Amino acid sequence: MRSIVEKIAYAYESKEFLPELRAVKRFLESQGISADKLRSRADALPKVIDVLAHQSKEGLEKLVADSKKAGRGDLGVIADQILGSGTRPR
To answer: Can you give the residue range of the structural domain that contains 34?
Structure first.
């Protein structure tokens, strides 16, 4: 479970997951976390990690699946690797 959170956090840092501050704010607010005072993605990282760390494995899998459906960057490739679907990037 920790490795999944770490990989998603790495994707966040490389802007493959929640690449814009407005997306980060929407994500945090959807989890019941106030994001009004956030000024940058870097400021938001601890909150994002905290939210991810408190998710169940199923919750993380749903988050990744929802992100793939929404077409948010390259998270789909990372998600496949994290979840072990066997899909390899070309």
So the answer is: 2-83
* Distant-in-sequence, close-in-space partners of 37: CB < 8 Å, separation ≥ 6: none
**What does the block give as tokens for 52?**
């991810």
> Which spans in the chain are helix H?
2-13, 21-30, 41-53, 57-70, 75-83
| 79: its two tokens | 């998600």
C-alpha span between 2 and 30 (Å, rounded): 22
pLDDT, one tens digit per residue, over 24-65 is 999 899 889 999 999 999 999 999 999 999 988 888 877 766
Is residue 37, in this structure, part of any structural domain at all? yes
